[in-house]
Amino acid sequence: MNLKEIWERIKKFYNEKFKPLTLNQKILWISLIFGAIVAISVLTYINSIPHYVVLVSNLSESNAGDIANELNKLGIPYQAGKNGTIYIPESQNVYDVRMKLATAGLLGPTAGVQGYSLLTNNSLSSLGMTSFDRQVQYQIALAGELEGSIDMLQEIEYSKVFLSLPKYTYYVPGQEEKPTASVLVVLKPNMQLSQDQILGIANLVAGAVGDMALSDVKIVDQYSNVLSNEIDLSQNAMVATS
């Protein structure tokens, strides 16, 4: 439909539908059209504003600065908030970005970034729940966030994270019992993880749990190969075993 045809349709509508209306009816029509235009404009503007989500929180000032620099290198916009929180646009894949940061050694014990949070207050509900219920809910939610990031590695079909946390770690970090984690990665056919990726997984998991050392994270594949034995986790070092 060209402009001439559009103009002819407008003229026809005006002469046949709009012109015969009374003054009050014309005012009503104009008000409705104007209101619709305003509503569409407002909705368009609101939708154009990027919605930011939590990437990671509870960071130190220096850690947040290092992560911000890496996000700049990756071309990912971000906002810094209170309590060491970094936000990125919802359009970015938060799981993928977390895995990239961990693989780059910017999250976890290797970078001295421990006890950061991947969860928001909206992720957990405490209404009518006991302390034990909250602990279980916290572990399930955290494991789900970790699995979401680990699954972003293209070599992985899917993963399962099993956390063993001291009782009430959600409330009081640092109990006598040591927190541990086991990670099962199901690799795609003919795929294998690099040592940096294995260390990145260990860093991501250990860093999200207070007082968990890299050596407390066991990573195995579907063939029962202990992948975490392929790297040196003893001193939080990014050194591969020979």
Automatic annotation (TrEMBL):
Residues 50-228 form the Flagellar M-ring N-terminal domain. GO terms for biological process: bacterial-type flagellum-dependent cell motility. One of its GO terms (molecular function) is cytoskeletal motor activity. The chain crosses the membrane at residues 27-46. GO terms for cellular component: bacterial-type flagellum basal body, MS ring; membrane. Keywords: Cell projection, Cilium, Flagellum, Membrane, Transmembrane, Transmembrane helix. Pfam families: YscJ_FliF. It is found in: Membrane. The keyword Transport does not apply. This is Flagellar M-ring protein FliF. It comes from Mesoaciditoga lauensis.
